[in-house]
Amino acid sequence: MGLLDILQQAIGGGNADDHANHIDQVTQHASTEEIGAGLAAAMRSDQTPPFGNMVGQLFGQSSPTQQAGVLNQILATLGPAAASALAGGVLGRVLQPGQTQVTPDQASQLSPAQVTEIAAHAEQQHAGVIDEVSQFYAQHSGLIKTLGGAALAIALAKMKENATRG
């Protein structure tokens, strides 16, 4: 069964459990770029929670290493000075002077609510942060399942749309 067949089957299954079950199959057949494009579409959709909320939710389900990874992705996209000032300087308070990467230990000091604010502010500063964060999470299929039915359905539909074009 090819990716297009799996996506068609996944979209046909209408509930959140069906979508979550199909994510494993999809991630085995799709590239990280394809998954990231689907996630970015879900994160931009007006049918899902705002980008910041989705990132905060994913952050709350992540390991400290994954938490640091997404924060470092935001830092890399915006630059350390801009990212450190986000959300009232929350990120800047965990970074040491001159430090440009967040450690897992530092990341675990932040709450999902703080990361929601950081991500929302990051989106206002640089809309491309959605694509970068989506590519990061595309590498962590276990986390993708925690997004919920609407986001998964949109991500799968976007992947199918992209697959039929290619």
Describe this structure as you would to a colleague.
The protein is elongated. It has one domain (3-165). With 166 residues, the protein is mainly α. The chain has 11 helices and no strands. Helix 1 (3-12) runs antiparallel to helix 2 (16-29), helix 4 (51-61) runs antiparallel to helix 8 and helix 6 (80-94) packs antiparallel against helix 8 (112-125). It has helices spanning 3-12, 16-29, 32-44, 51-61, 64-78, 80-94, 104-107, 112-125, 129-138, 141-144, 149-165.
Q: What separation lies between the terminal Cα atoms?
A: 17 Å
Mean pLDDT: 81
User: What is the string of SSEs from the N terminus onward?
Assistant: HHHHHHHHHHH
Number of strands: 0
Helix content: over 70%
Proportion of residues in extended strands:
under 5%
Structural class: mainly alpha
Task: Tally the structural domains.
Answer: 1
Tell me, what's the shape? elongated
Summarize this structure briefly.
With 166 residues, the protein is mainly α. 77% of the residues lie in helices and 0% in strands.
Blueprint of the fold:
Blueprint: H1 3-12, H2 16-29, H3 32-44, H4 51-61, H5 64-78, H6 80-94, H7 104-107, H8 112-125, H9 129-138, H10 141-144, H11 149-165
Helix pairs in contact: 1-2, 1-11, 2-11, 3-9, 3-11, 4-8, 5-6, 5-9, 6-8
